[in-house]
Amino acid sequence: xxxxxxxxxxxxxxxxxxxxxxxxxxxxxxxxISARIEHVSGGAIQLNMGSLYPxxxxxxxxxxxxxxxxxxxxxxxxxxxxITAAGRRQLQTEKTEWARMTAIIQAxxxxxxx
Length: 114
Known about the structure:
Layout: H1 14-25, E1 28-29, H2 30-40, H3 49-61, E2 65-71, E3 77-83, H4 85-110
Antiparallel strand pairs: 1-3, 2-3
Helix pairs in contact: 1-4
């Protein structure tokens, strides 16, 4: 996407994207999570590891994901992240809040807000 503008990650959306990714695809290592988000965004979102790994640690500390060491396809050791039951509940909460906020923003942009 050399001529297209890259999107920054909106504050508070990294957790939502990570939780949705591991909920959909199952256990993934950090690089695979980042690659998946980049792929589904059409390259508009490119997470740097300095943003992703602190986010993964925060989600793990909050009990929304768990990490386990395993081997990648290329036989390298990596931490694989999977969603927990608490993470599934949090994902649903965040998706509901995201839908509510985007509806509000769309209404304001259209001038329909009362």
